[in-house]
Amino acid sequence: MELFALSAAEMVRGIKAKDFSASEVFASCLSRIEALEPELSALLALTAGMGREEAARIDGMIARGTDPGPLAGVPVVLKDNMCLRGVPATCASRILEGWIPPYDGKVAELLAGAGAVFAGKANMDEFAMGSSTEFSAFHPTSNPWDTGRVPGGSSGGSAAAVAAGYAPLALGSDTGGSIRQPASYCGLYGLKPTYGLVSRWGLVAFASSLDQIGPFARTVEDLALLLSVIAAPDARDGTCSPRERPDYAAPLAAASLRGKRIAVVKELDAMRSSVDPEVLRVLENTLNLCREEGAEIVEVSLPVSLEFGLPCYYILAPAEASSNLARFDGVRYGLSCREDSLLDLYLTTRGAGFGAEVKRRILTGTYVLSSGYYDAYYLTAQKVRSLMKAEFRKAFGRCDLIALPTAPTPAFKKGELVDDPVRMYLADVFTLPVNLAELPALSLNGGFTGGKKPLPVGVQFIAPQWGEPELLNAAAVLERRLGKAPIAPLGAATEGGNAP
Amino acid sequence: MTISEKDVRHVADLARLRVEEKEIEPLVRHFEAILGHFATLSRAREEGRLNLDGVDPFLFSEREAPPLREDEPVRSAVRDDVLAAAPERKDSFFVVPRILEEE
Amino acid sequence: MTFRYIPVIGLEIHVQLSTATKIFCPCSTDYIGAEPNTNVCPVCLGLPGSLPVLNKRAVELGVRAGLALSCTIRNHTVFHRKNYFYPDLPKAYQISQYDLPLAEGGEIYIPGDDGRPRRIRITRLHLEEDAGKLVHSAADGRLEGAAFSFVDYNRGGVPLAEIVSEPDITSPREAREYVARIRQTVRYLGVSDGDMERGSLRVDANVSVKKTDETSGEVLYWGERTEIKNMNSLRAVERALEYEIIRQTGVLAEGGSLERETRHWNDGEGITTSMRSKEAANDYRYFPDPDIPPIVVTEELLESTRNALPELPWAKERRFAGEYGLPEADAAFMAESLPVALYFEECVKNGAAPLRAANWIRTEVFRVMNEKGLSMDSFPVKPSVLAELVALVEGGKLSTTVAREVFAHLAEGRSLKDALPAAGASPGGLSAEDVEKMVDRVLLANGDVVEEIRSGRDPKGKKIKFLTGLVMKEARGQADAAAVSGILERRLGEGR
Ligand SMILES: [Mg+2]
Ligand SMILES: [Zn+2]
ipTM of the predicted structure? Predict the structure, then answer.
């Protein structure tokens, strides 16, 4: 097996045992990237030089007997909305084209401190606004399972990179489903942590009260490994919890669903017609496996979240975004269309720098906060958010986990929804209530669609606040039944994983 | 929910976004779609399926917050990089088109 | 019908809090004279990905000021974003407070126009971040008329307390008194240096004029209010308001109408000019800042802050008048600033008579301070030393004239022991016995004059004054003239 196809944990073990070097691992991933990138366009920047140096440094440490950390020599891809000092961070927007962050985000610091090696920055929907990575200002990314389809979004580049074997690990950000939905479309594990588990310092904000950084991986062990590294308190983020974080990877060997109550959601029944039958079949199958593993399947009701979550999200997220994106004004950094008057500097820079979807959201957000509309939209949506939170709290009185589809459909075709943004928003209907309620949720690959080009289909598990261990426990049990997430069958034959 | 072109122009103004004439109409339709979707809430409230009376708007999370910052100065190292990359700079100032003092 | 035009004034005062670091980042607040854009970091430059974290000290100072102004302190207080575009605002929103300010509903008393104390209600005190600075031309004029403005973010993010009054102020003089009172209070509290010239205390005034019926008092018309900016001294506040009230009254009296606008005070020309009409374009889209969790002001913080409040100027003034019997003006002067009040009380504690000590401080101490450009804290004559000097004068051992000379030497940094002989006074002054002996000597040496007086040939007391002068000369001014002539009269009477 080629080194790129190993899991992160296998890489660490091999590098520490000197079976192979970090430099060899990095070289293997690099050649994989170079082979597939023309087809996938998953990245916005490749950090080959930086990565090689870092890998060599890790090898030096190993040679000297120094422990480089839990991610020793593991290549990692960052979504392009995360600051890594000295490497451009564009957020896939023209307005930040060429901007080089002069500082490291918290996750970049933590990853470097754990011995990870940065392989590149991943493509995304502009400022994380989108569900297909087609709203990147630079180029769309292809789904490694079917290059005619989207990888999902907004963290589509990160998901495609891990699914294609660019790196065993990637970070995405999830504001309304932007980790879980691409994880589903690309057949991976993707976890959106509890709001406040991972620092947002250095994450370019989309909607501050919803954004959360989380991991992509092809194995549960890797997912837990990466989560353990990035889940840390941070005094520079006032919304990052100071609570102690457990080692998420340690208890996985003993994972069990015996006695766990896993809930299906009553309202899903009424929504069946708008959910792809394959998605429902995969969900059903996954729940059966849970039952076989000793879980009790119960039912809860989330009427507010499933009916009103979507409209509320599309009020609140744009409202915050309109304010967060106001700083891109051509004065201090990024695109600046110099004009004779200040007003024209603003209008031209922002008019030329933002793409259509970002403009739509900025304008929507500006509208709902503007004088006379605040109460009717923003405040009302916040009230509904309160109800959703209460509704989930009540539901978790009766279960340990809630199961839902991650997305209503498998990956859709490129171009299919670009001109119908509101229909594209529906792709988030099962994921965004989780962000509004600040909860953790995990998407795992529950199976594939039938047909000539099988597409992965994700299943989403939702836990109460700080319930990441519960999510990883369930995923570990199901991984034993379903197998690891496979590398997409692209390019040179790949082994390992469990291709359909 | 009726949105006018004037509404769109007004928010574009507030948001300092230059919107081309041909973009206005699609934006009006987009606003109507989004806000129309939101109007399902009002319908649900009228039908008694959604009761928001006395509900506290969930403005902030109930999580434990980290302690406030102590008043101890730390010098940041970003200054030179930021100035070097500034779109327009004079000495160590950022430069903008002239603003009249009494504007 | 005759009309009366009554001004209605409310003030918004922005006070820069005396913290070491900015309100949401650990950059230094020491921006005066600093090279542009040196005290900056990702947060106060608004770099993508940066986040604000509130400075604890700013909250403590805000609570202290709120309590001193008799406000109610909110136990949960929230920061909002005030959204607008301007180059000095790097995030295109100012983090400020909106409907849940730190402190509300306070009051402060000022000397009213009728001489009686007037209560001015404080609407609220809230915390917010300062903006950066725009430079429109360089000091050397090189950029005069240039096509650009220049932005410096050193001041951006410096913590401000905004103190908003109710429109309870009815004259420019009262406005001035109010600002002086607020400035004095924040200085007493150590919350701000309150320096208006340097911009650490900035005043915006909202002023309108209502037209009333002179006889019935009925309000006939309430003019639109204007907001006045750029008043950089107490004097400017008073002058700007005087101008603006006359202007508004004039417009109304001529049947014109006023427009809601912001006006700029031009100190050189002594006029206000229109800057922009307000509210038309402004829609700040306030919403709670999701990056900053609500601030909890604990009962402990409230209690400890309340207990640590210094005696406030008005209380001190009252006590000085009561406890030390100072006249009102002296009490006010001694309580005007905390360092002066401390100096004064230290003098008194060291045995100086309060009234005389107050006099010395008002005149000599302040004269020397002004001449030498010193502050009270660095004043070379310690209060205990001044107390000794004042006691010598009080005890008749030193004349005021010589004491002033001694004081001048003390102010040069000499000790009292060195200053007394330097001023020609003997250390320790003259005893009563010494004076008696001098009188004896003078009487002996001037037998003829004594004879003339005793025989009643000094109806106008000229001759006794002459003898007094001789004694004073011998005493090198260290004796008290009244005491000397007293002794002379007694002795001249004895021999009759
Ligand atoms: Mg203010
Ligand atoms: Zn700073």
Answer: 0.96
